[in-house]
# Entry
Amino acid sequence: MARKLPRKDVVIVGLGWTGSILANELTDEGLDVVAIERGPWRNTATDFNVGYMQDELRYAIRKDLFLRPAQSTLTFRNNVEQEALPIREFGSFLPGNGVGGAGVHWNGQTWRFLPSDFRCRSHLSERYGEKFIPDELTIQDWGVTYEEMEPYYDKFEYLAGVSGKAGNINGKRQDGGNPFEGARARDYPLPPLDMTYGPKLFAEGAREAGYHPFPQPAANASRSYTNTLGVEMGACSYCGFCERFGCANYSKASPQTTILPVLMRKPNFECRTNSEVVRINLDRSGKRATGVTYVDAQGQEWEQPGDLVLVCAFILFNVHMLLVSGIGKPYDPKTATGTVGRNYTYQTYAGVEMFFDNKNFNPFIATGAIGQCIDDFNGDNFDHSGLDFVGGAGIMCASTNARPIATRPTPPGTPRWGSTWKKATTDNYLSSLYLNAQGGSYATRGNYLDLDPTYKDRLGRPLLRMTFDFPDNDIRMISYVTRKAEEIAKVMTPRQIVPHYRTKPYSVVPYQSTHNIGGAIMGSDPKTSVVNKYLQSWDVPNVFVIGASAFPQNAGYNPTDTVGALAYKAADAIRNLYLKNEGPLVPA
Amino acid sequence: MKRNPAPFTALLPLAMAAIFSAAAPARGQGATDSQSFEIIERGRYLATAGDCVACHTAPGGKPYAGGLALETPFGKLVGANITPDRETGIGAWTDDQFVQAMQEGIAPRGHLYPAMPYPAFTKVSRADLLAIRAFLNTLEPVKNPIEPNQLPFPFNIRASMLAWNALNFTPGEFKPDPGKPAEWNRGAYLVEGLGHCGTCHTPKTILGGDKNADSLQGAVLQSWFAPDITNAMHKGLGGWSQEDIVQYLKTGANQFTIASGPMADAITNSTSKLSDPDLKAIATYLKDMPSNANTTPVPVAADDKRMVAGQAIYKDTCNACHLDSGAGTSHLFPTLAGSAVVQSDNPTTLIRVVLQGTQGVATAAAPTAPAMPSFAWRLNDEQVASLLTYVRNSWGNAAAPVSAADVKTLRESLASAE
# Structure
């Protein structure tokens, strides 16, 4: 039996990037806020200790900071014909666990989406005609424009101390930046990271091939930085332990390094860790949330009443929370009705490996988002007329790490073990490079999330079920861009080029990306979206669902900048619209 | 939905403090209107300047209701309940009794011990003391019986303090030096009086009295070294500007360092809440404090084997944050080059932070609170000694080498304190 706690103004489910941003904004508004976090408290000083943080075995291989499947998992299948089975070891994607969420273990690659990404269907229809869009795709507009997003992108980037070079300030081209990006109001808060040899060589090759290289925007501080909340960040030491690790040097932006020092001091904020929200409670009408029920580490169930419930967990668990709470109509692929779980997408990766003679890239001098990129083949930056796909991918040479256990580049044909393998790893460790093609992921009718009919979690709730395979459109898209990457590789004249094309079916075993997207998407029509342009539930207006769950489909970029911007956008709407007039901010 | 005007109410006491401290403190007045809003708020400010709450509050307890146990070299003393409860607090005391306790160390129940810093508070004016009293009277009376004196025999005999006083105590209110500016005198009044800086920063005699000739030149307490805060160049505040001192006291951090350890508490509870004019006055006075130790030691030679080993450990373990140059990062990673704490004769603080780690103070103005992790598990006594010998003698630094025996002793005492 749940014990009832005193009411709070705001109950936040999950204290990662979005939960921290919302909590900080709404406590500034004078509201009494509690965040309920499934995992443990995490702090730079105690948990990302500079003395042992660079432990690849513990953090990267044994995945110390990530969610354990025993805590929560999901089932997976490629299509509705298959029976989904539980993921018993996370592989393809790694959900975070604990305070800071994915903001702890990310690399720091901080991209804005293109203006055309936000008007995906309208833009493509206007440019090529509606018929050009493959039938399988259920891509749609976001209900928000890039211009509306710009101030919130800016706010997140100045919070996080992003290092980069603008390509377009107020419509004016900037040399050295991304010429394809949407107009930004001002440059990045910090200059780009110091570039290592590999990315420089790629930039030269790309330029020679006629493309437009620029440094990847990075939430790894290139200089020490005092952020907009007065929190100090240190200059990155290029240790190469970003993704899967917490940053010990206060250099990688995370809730810990940018918000929590301010938030945790506030008397009107409270965080309860090791406490998992079981469901959002609704009143009898089903139109208003009354709070949440959660279970603490001792197994005690608590009811936390609240006026406003903000769902700020990782995207998969945002969608799960709506489904188990009965908020919104679950999506049914047979009839293409319902919205919750619809338009689940991912990220489409491929790449090109290069082996050189007589080159030394010192790949261990690395940081999560260092690199040079071209955007010439991303989104709709190139003319798709005559091509058999829509969408695109960025191509980058990113030197994120070269850790000793997992980084063992060897040419095809090398034995998997023994002295020949050892010699090959020694010969190639310093002299190989990888070009990544990071593609968008477009929604289809058959890719979706729902509740599993068979398997339950430790709290007795049905597991989330993921049904996903790469759309044929995306395979054609990434193959095209991978061929472009191969052409650039040839200009760089390595000894050997090994392309890694993406093929179907999608597998959840090898790591690909933790950019899971969609399922509680935003839009302007309640028939095809779960939340409105302010991330407010169409069905239960005192519930906001914030995160990459809101993207209607994915662009060819990492999601965090857009997630941070959406969090600020939602906070702004709550502060300036919702609190003045509680109820739907957009008429349904 | 309820919307608390939290930011405004939180700022109110600070704003009031600024207003009242700007006015010249009334001195030498006999009677005080204990219900006056202005006097009560001035009392709140002065009680903050005196950091009364630090000793008179148990961890997690009600403010001023007593109960913090102080480990002194002579035994345990517990901060008294100074709420206005008539039985267990000081509610039944007269104003004169309160003033006598503060200025002479004589309370109704008997003589106080100088852990209650009456040798400093004797310098505080009667008007200021009565303002503090007026503020304390506004607190909720808390029934919390405390036996402050938990000393062993013979120190538990309060009358023994009469002899101690004769040797160590000079009563009398602060007398301004007419040859100095008002700001200097205000600083002296705060540093020597309510601020009782010397309680930690002045070396003590074997009886626990201040070594007055060495005033504010650094002392060890609770396995920390409270550094020299005179204007000494090498191991005092000589390298800091007045503005650096003000910023340190106000925010806990400045371009060189971040406060931690006991000073972090003093900044949280007290100095961060003082007015800018008072902080400037304190800085003015400290920058004028002479030191009798202005000779710079000769640095240990760079090719000394401890220096060579220390440099290797430093590069492996320290330079990601503190940098090869020892410059650190402003407001985040303390500067080691030229640091007074690094070059103090007594390396207790240095050894301690390497062994145990420490967290910087967080204030509203400098909320980051970066931390140095413990390296006790990874460096042995010899390695810590070499490392610190290197840090104390590089980038222009010069100080006596640290011995492995010193590290061993502190390691054991920290372990036994846990």
